[in-house]
Amino acid sequence: MSLLVKICGLRTAADVSVAIDEGADAVGFVFAESPRRVAPADAARAASQCSDNVIKVAVMRHPSNEDLQQVLEVFEPDVLQTDLGDFDVLDVPDSVRRWPVIRESMSAAHNEVSDTFLYEGKNSGRGERVDWRRAAEIAAHGNMILAGGLDAHNVGTAVRIVRPFGVDVSSAIESEPGKKDPALIRKFISAARAAESIL
Question: Does residue 82 contact residue 109 with C-beta atoms inside 8 Å?
Fold first, then answer.
């Protein structure tokens, strides 16, 4: 079984290139308040090299419909990732897949999700690790992408315990907030791929 590997918080074409070259399945661009926030036009330029088999993810949190429509028009994502409740009030076209974010504090919400979802702590992009044992229980009910506190040193253990559909990393592959480190990107993807044999 393959493991979906998502590299999140990308801002430059160079970092996207490293992620793609190392075999990332998905690349995430943050349009919410964050050191990694990027303008839709800049994200579109950085992601222009993505082939059809690399998933472009728009990462948002409680966006207005106006902000969402700008991202959809300019960036043209394959997936919208935002908190589960946001989808109740947003106009998301059928052509864009939905990856609702379920936070550890609302873990029972996984019962409302029938497909792929992201599972993380209360705050995004801060390396907050969730309880992997609890996450494993939830992962058994759907396609969980595990996020929060993952790095090249612990992703193998996380995959063994949680057995997720995918893994997501952002802050652990940075030399400083918002600045990606190519070497750390490579190490994380290599470690995640090595963990696939566990699944």
Answer: no
Amino acid making up residue 97: R
Written as one string, the DSSP assignment of 61-118 is: SS--HHHHHHHHHHT--SEEEEEGGGGGT----TTSEEEEEEEGGGGGGGGG--SEEE
pLDDT along the chain (199 residues), means of 10: 95 97 98 96 97 97 97 98 94 97 76 84 77 92 93 97 97 95 98 92
| Cβ-proximal residues to 164 (8 Å cutoff; 6+ apart), any chain | 3, 119, 135, 139, 144, 145, 146, 158
Radius of gyration (C-alpha) of the chain in whole angstroms: 15
> Which one-letter amino acid corresponds to residue 178?
G
Q: How far apart are CA 134 and CA 157, in angstroms?
A: 14
The helices-and-strands tally (H runs, E runs) of the chain is 6, 10
Strand locations in 132-197 (E): 143-146, 166-169, 174-176, 179-180
* Residue-level length of the chain: 199
Query: How far does the chain reach from its first CA to its final CA, in angstroms?
Result: 6
Class of domain 4-198: alpha beta
**Around Cβ 86, how many Cβ atoms within 10 Å?**
19
Q: Report helix angle 13-21 to 182-195, nearest 10.
A: 30
